[in-house]
Amino acid sequence: xxxxPRNDPRQYDRLAGEWWRPxxxxxxxxxxxxxxxxxVPPARRPDSVLLDIGCGAGLLAPHIRAKGYRHVGVDxxxxxxxxxxxxxxxxxxxxxxxxxxxxxxxxxxxxGELLEHVPDLTATVAExxxxxRPGGLLVLDTLNATLLSRVLAVGxxxxxxxxxxxxxxxxxxxxPRRLAAECVRHGVRLEVRGVRPTVPALxxxxxxxxxxxxxxxxxxxxxxxxxxxxxxxxxxxxxxxxASMGTG
Length: 248
Description:
The protein has eight helices and eight strands, in the order ααβαβαββαβααβαββ.
């Protein structure tokens, strides 16, 4: 099977069987989905919509199901969307830089582990903000454009057993200052904080990587003082600051 370029979406078709496998290649994405869901408040009205951009196979779904949103997922990878639909997500094929969604139609946008994959960050942020209603909430997590992040996520991370090679292009990693500035241009003031796996969770993952041991039942991502590797963002449209991200 021929090699694909870094960050090529077709890689996810090859990894289609990994999304929901408990000890699969995407285990850390399950952890991050649970942490992202903590930033989403319960829906305020029965017709509230959460748009999950780059939804993959719908890993966010179990964590927001009880919050009362219609969960709509957009992704480029049909094999992933098929699985998202099986988990209750309204699945739509679409590009994050040209969302097939009306202006101001969405109460919450979740962009988890997406922005470090998009070739045009400016256009993607503009679209994310466009579809949010006034007062709507943006939540995200992504990788920082630092040497440390590149070393850990690619240089070392891709050498771990069971970790896919070539999923990330470190040239696309996202400086939080640039991201916040792009959001402000479109009326969203983004608050960011660093996050990381807990030490016990990370040790368990490292020891079982590639060995088929059962995964932890819950994701274990916690805030940290540094945004140098991985960070979350949360912000409301039209300059309305969200409640503090807190310590959860």
